[in-house]
Amino acid sequence: MRRAAPALGLFAAARLTGLLVLWLWAEHIGRSPRQLLAHTWDSPWYTRIAEQGYGYTIHFTDGAVHSDLAFFPLYPALVRAVTTVLPIGGGTAALLISWGAAAAAAFAIYLLGERLHGRRTGTVLVLLWGLLPHAVVFSIAYTEPLLTVFAAFALYAVLTGRWLWAGSLAALAGLARPNGVAIAAAVCATVAYELWKRRAHAPWRLWAAALVAPLGWGGYLLWVGVRVGDPLAGYFAVQDGWRSYFDFGADALSDVRDIVLRPAELASTGTVLIVCAAVLLFALLLVDRENRPPLPLLVYAGVLLLITVGGGGSFFESKPRFLLPAFPLLLPLACALTKARPRAAIVVIAALAGLSCCYGTYLLTLAPMPL
């Protein structure tokens, strides 16, 4: 914790500055800052599940069907647990969980960065993660921080040979969000590689990690499938009702074409730029032999990127949010800033801070599409 203190302090300063800018602008335009933080877009779905359980569905005239079964259970379960113990409402409990998870995730990301490239790179990696354009999501009642903390600690467990911890944490990550399958894939891929290397000398903990890691994600999908009457495809039918599906990027390419050829909202243009930057950063991860991260981090970031780029449907502008847990993509930039001249690094960090604060405030207060 002493080694991580500078990184955690910088992360807290970044997020508190973003909150301050958001708070001042919300007051200026007559919006409630607390309402924006605790009850924005998907947040009421989680608090409703925490209070009443699953079973709420909205039918739209265009044929869309929004069922709360699309939302994974770990976050609302934690909200319910906190409201049971403390005399606070669901929105406040959801914020406390998100903020605590974001801080814990920053600590885990520092541990990974320090282990791979030293303390300075670990600190810069955490700061960059806290200054992403969509980092405002870490401050609202959303599930990305919860997924990231379990995924980051699972990756650290893999790198340090704690296989049972890795599998268990991956299972919890799979209960947090649909793209939590990425960490299960990373654990299973690493186990397969270790089994191939060790062959007859592989310990039983490797097998156990591979068996446990996908249980959270797969178990929830199976539960939803049984509930809707189609064990294998039921969850994907629920996602279809939300107009969310995987089509290998065909729909996303159509959206990009429309954004390029016609006037578009700032959030739409920002989505294209952010996703393109993520693809470029992943390519840098692959080609940089000197700083290439270990297999589990590559698989984890690659699967998250594949899900984001290949997903189609009505929520194109949500793609940068889906990439928030993909912190390994920031390793090339963190390594470059660590080696850069201090003045150049400060200029880059300051520019990112300004972008993060202003763009995050825009997304919550002015953008017309879901975050």
Automatic annotation (TrEMBL):
<keyword id="KW-0328">Glycosyltransferase</keyword>
<feature type="transmembrane region" description="Helical">
    <location>
        <begin position="124"/>
        <end position="143"/>
    </location>
</feature>
<feature type="transmembrane region" description="Helical">
    <location>
        <begin position="7"/>
        <end position="26"/>
    </location>
</feature>
<keyword id="KW-0337">GPI-anchor biosynthesis</keyword>
<comment type="pathway">
    <text>Glycolipid biosynthesis; glycosylphosphatidylinositol-anchor biosynthesis.</text>
</comment>
<feature type="transmembrane region" description="Helical">
    <location>
        <begin position="266"/>
        <end position="285"/>
    </location>
</feature>
<keyword id="KW-0812">Transmembrane</keyword>
<feature type="transmembrane region" description="Helical">
    <location>
        <begin position="204"/>
        <end position="226"/>
    </location>
</feature>
<keyword id="KW-0808">Transferase</keyword>
<dbReference type="InterPro" id="IPR007315">
    <property type="entry name" value="PIG-V/Gpi18"/>
</dbReference>
<dbReference type="Pfam" id="PF04188">
    <property type="entry name" value="Mannosyl_trans2"/>
</dbReference>
<dbReference type="GO" id="GO:0016757">
    <property type="term" value="F:glycosyltransferase activity"/>
</dbReference>
<feature type="transmembrane region" description="Helical">
    <location>
        <begin position="322"/>
        <end position="338"/>
    </location>
</feature>
<feature type="transmembrane region" description="Helical">
    <location>
        <begin position="88"/>
        <end position="112"/>
    </location>
</feature>
<protein>
    <submittedName>
        <fullName>Mannosyltransferase family protein</fullName>
    </submittedName>
</protein>
<feature type="transmembrane region" description="Helical">
    <location>
        <begin position="163"/>
        <end position="192"/>
    </location>
</feature>
<keyword id="KW-1133">Transmembrane helix</keyword>
<keyword id="KW-0256">Endoplasmic reticulum</keyword>
<feature type="transmembrane region" description="Helical">
    <location>
        <begin position="297"/>
        <end position="316"/>
    </location>
</feature>
<feature type="transmembrane region" description="Helical">
    <location>
        <begin position="345"/>
        <end position="365"/>
    </location>
</feature>
<keyword id="KW-0472">Membrane</keyword>
